Amino acid sequence: MADRQSGPTRSTRSGRASAGSSLLRRLQEHAPNSTQVVGFLTLVISGAILLLLTGLTITGTVMALIFLGPILLLTSPIWVPVGTVVFVAVAGFLSMCGFGVAMLAGATWMYKYFTGRHPVGSDRVDYARSRIADTASHVKDYAREYGGYLQSRVKDAAPGA
User: Fold this and answer.
1) I want to staple 112 with a disulfide (CB 3.0 to 4.6 A). Which of 79, 101, 117, 147 is the partner?
2) What is the pLDDT of residues 110-152, one digit of tens each?
3) How does DSSP classify residue 1?
């Protein structure tokens, strides 16, 4: 009988121990490893640094507007024309650069087309050229027919002409 009482007591204790060890095992399975901890710390530190820099930037901007605002307001009759001239000059320079690049690309395409290398889109150009030539020949034929018709009508109206 003593064996029976000691048996359940031991199994209860071993059951509690196994439940505790399984809980510990579950916690260890879900615990982050060292790589995840370092990544999380890096994220927190980087976020804090960026938040600090954002605050400093906003503070500096507000302070500059407070102290330099009146000076900017008093000298604005000078800054507005200067800004306009600078804007027009920069816009003109950038547009000329863009037009130069477009002209260079067009000249390169035409060189390839006329040397027979068939660049992209050359089939469309050939099709358009053939359509224009066909339309021109149809208009020419129609003008000949219609012109002959008008000449015969003029001779009917004025036989001596």
Assistant:
1) 117
2) 999 999 898 999 999 999 999 999 999 998 888 887 776 666 6
3) -
